[in-house]
Specification:
Number of strands of chain B: 12
Radius of gyration of chain A: 19 Å
CATH class of the largest domain in chain B: Alpha Beta
CATH architecture of the largest domain in chain B: 3-Layer(aba) Sandwich
Distance between the termini of chain A: 34 Å
Number of helices of chain A: 10
Helix content of chain B: 25-40%
Number of strands of chain A: 11
Helix content of chain A: 40-55%
Number of domains of chain B: 2
CATH topology of the largest domain in chain B: Rossmann fold
Order of helices and strands of chain B: EEEHEEHEHHHHEHEHEEHHEHE
Bound molecules: adenosine-5'-diphosphate, iron/sulfur cluster, magnesium ion
Shape of chain B: globular
Oligomer: heterodimer
Shape of chain A: globular
Number of helices of chain B: 11
Radius of gyration of chain B: 21 Å
Distance between the termini of chain B: 42 Å
């Protein structure tokens, strides 16, 4: 197996609100290896999104306590860095895409405008150069006519098109890690297949490691290399996908697999 | 209730078109001549990608959206021709459950008030008996009686969707039209609500028009399925006939795109492109721009609806049973080949 690009050790997260303390993540440890697609599965409320958000430093410190033995990104310990340097590294090396891209896109700017500003801000390109890069980026996520998409506003695109724009934006920063949080839950099956196919191809071409958060075991079986199973803020099982489906060990994993077997179109 | 009894709901050649926006705009044809039948106590699953016209059709059936032409017959009565009191009576028999229960339930009404509202509106039973009916409906959807005094925003998504179902069934309707009622819920919660709907059908004989883009749920739930694409039903039939022998290339593409929870299963196949805009529907077959089996006449000649059965090699009698009512709109199946 390739070396880990991200190592998380004993990550615990608690939430404070008016004197009440809730443990949301409990000693989460895992490695994400170079070029792999790692699934994070579990039902809603199990802590999948909070795992991603705490790694990315997105949880406001006034209400969230985060502790970890180590969060290593490409060998350097993020926990040891000051907040400013941390944000820079995270922004550059890890990109994230969300379930509903409409909330992540600005409604008053065109797609081209928003995508170009990623290239000018994160890659130091000039306006003209950024235009060319943006067109190429949209071409790479399967838009046959990038110029047309550049002129649209987010609400003028379908859900699947918006999600592919988000992938183009995320990849524009040339991240080594992409975290996708239920990226296709809101989409139709046909669009889901298009978007996941794009993600897998980009990962393979650019060697990006993908942490794919999902509650769909079909997606785990068909698109991922390894899987982490999360229950109540803990990782209760991790295994290669073949191993997980052939030999589930934890009772919760077994229950998950059983319910998926009942639901699949035979 | 007889198996071949009177049709509960008959939709004939329904056309829904939204008026043009702005002076240069064109009207948008969301539903283009759709017909379907729902028998007493049966479940009809309507599937299709978003934008295919499922909600427009469902809203037109309950007379929430006007339709340009066509008919909606409930127990043989044309709803458009009914006067107020009769329409009210028909409405009581035909309830609706929306996708987003948080938006559909008023935050200022307790669950009890929410359930009493349709009973008061339709004057069901004596006023004093209504609270009992409300409590019974809550019990039917397997929620505790102490929920009566809570508010929608205090409940989980699954609990809210149960309340929405309870509100729909409290007037003891014959038909519930549910527009993507599960899509905001977790898989285990979805599975429990599917079981609940099957129970309501079995115990109370309630029929459903179940709108969904989730094929596996529709397969579990529905007796008959219609597949919608760009405002048309391109294939329909008994659930098992349609899932085991999908005839339309679009239905096949939909089924092939579902990732199966088994690593040994072949990978999902990708249907490229997006559905065309309903503002500029293509000539010929609605699916020809994406169809992997497109033939020369597909872009120009629109296929008519034909029976699927006769193409199978099975003996006449078996074939009739299995594929009875299985219909498709595709040149691969008509005689012009
Ligand atoms: N804003 C919040 N305030 C308080 N608790 C929260 C908040 N967001 C999430 N939680 C808690 O964190 C747990 C994990 O949430 P999350 O990571 O979003 O789950 P998942 O992504 O697996 O659905 C939830 O069960 C919830 O109790
Ligand atoms: N109120 C409306 N005004 C104009 N166009 C609409 C309206 N509602 C839906 N549409 C359009 O009609 C088409 C079908 O939409 P809809 O019935 O919501 O499909 P579905 O429920 O299958 O997603 C879409 O192109 C949609 O944009
Ligand atoms: S009519 Fe032609 S284009 Fe349409 S689905 Fe059939 S084969 Fe494909
Ligand atoms: Mg989440
Ligand atoms: Mg809809």
């Amino acid at each position: 197996m390739n070396k880990p690009v991200l190592s998380v050790r004993q990550l615990s997260v608690t939430h404070r609100l008016s004197g009440r303390v809730v443990n949301v993540l409990d000693q989460v440890s895992f490695d994400l290896h170079q070029g792999e697609i790692l699934a994070l599965v579990g039902q809603s409320g199990s802590g999948k999104t909070k795992t991603a958000e705490s790694i990315l430093g997105l949880l406001p410190p006034d209400r969230w306590d985060i502790s970890a033995q180590a969060i290593e990104l490409n060998g350097s310990d993020l926990a040891a860095l000051p907040e400013s340097g941390l944000r820079k590294i995270r922004g550059r090396s890890i990109s994230m895409i969300f379930q509903e891209p409409l909330t992540a896109l600005d409604p008053v700017f065109t797609v081209g405008n928003q995508l170009c500003s990623v290239f000018t801000r994160h890659r130091g390109q000039r306006r003209r150069e950024a235009q060319t890069s943006a067109q190429a980026a949209l071409g790479r996520v399967g838009f046959p006519d990038p110029g047309h998409v550049m002129r649209r506003y987010p609400h003028q695109l379908s859900g699947g098109m918006r999600q592919r724009v988000m992938i183009a934006m995320a990849m524009a920063c040339r991240p080594s890690i992409l975290i996708a949080d239920e990226p296709t839950t809101a989409l139709d099956v046909t669009t889901q297949a298009q978007v996941l196919d794009q993600l897998v191809q980009l990962g393979q071409k650019d060697g990006v490691s993908l942490l794919l958060i999902t509650h769909d075991l079909g997606i785990v079986a068909q698109y991922c290399d390894r899987a982490l199973v999360m229950l109540d803020g803990k990782i209760v099982e991790q295994a290669s996908v073949e191993e997980l489906f052939a030999n589930p060990r934890h009772v919760y994993t077994k229950a998950l697999l059983n319910s998926a077997a009942g639901a699949k179109p035979k | 209730m007889t198996p071949h009894g009177q049709m509960l709901l008959e939709v004939r050649d329904l056309v829904v078109s939204y008026p043009a926006r702005g002076s240069a705009g064109k009207p948008l044809a969301a539903v283009r001549s759709v017909s379907l039948n729902i028998e007493n106590g049966s479940i009809f699953g309507l599937v299709g990608e978003s934008g295919s016209g499922k909600s427009s059709l469902a809203h037109a059936i309950i007379q929430l959206t006007p339709y340009r032409s066509g008919q909606v017959l409930f127990r043989g009565q044309d709803l458009a021709s009914l006067k107020k009191p009769q329409l009210g009576a028909a409405r009581r028999q035909m309830q609706f459950v929306f996708q987003d229960s948080l938006a559909a339930l008023s935050p200022r009404r307790s669950i009890e008030q929410t359930l009493l509202e349709p009973l008061n509106h339709f004057r069901v039973g004596a006023p004093a008996s209504r609270a009992k009916k409300a409590a019974a409906a809550l019990e039917t959807v397997e929620l505790d009686a102490d929920m009566l005094h809570r508010y929608p925003q205090e409940l989980s998504g699954g609990q809210r969707q149960r309340v929405a179902l309870a509100r729909a069934l409290v007037t003891e309707p014959e038909l519930i039209i549910a527009d993507e009622p599960l899509s905001s819920l977790d898989a285990p919660v979805q599975a429990r609500i599917v079981d609940l709907m099957l129970k309501l059908r079995a115990e109370l004989g309630i029929a459903f028009l179940f709108v969904s883009h989730d094929l596996s749920t529709v397969r579990r739930l529905a007796d008959k399925v219609g597949v919608m694409y760009l405002g048309k039903i391109v294939e329909s039939g008994k659930t098992e006939s349609l899932f085991q022998q999908p005839a339309h290339p679009y239905t096949k593409s939909l089924l092939a795109a579902v990732p199966v929870a088994d690593p040994a299963h072949p990978a999902p196949s990708v249907l490229t492109g997006e559905p065309p805009s309903p503002l500029t529907p293509p000539a010929g077959c609605v699916f020809h721009m994406r169809c992997p089996e497109k033939m020369e006449r597909c872009p120009s000649i629109e296929p008519i609806e034909v029976a699927v059965g006769k193409q199978y090699g099975a003996p006449e009698n078996e074939r009739e049973l299995k594929t009875a009512g299985h219909r498709v709109r595709c040149h691969l199946w008509d005689d012009t080949k």
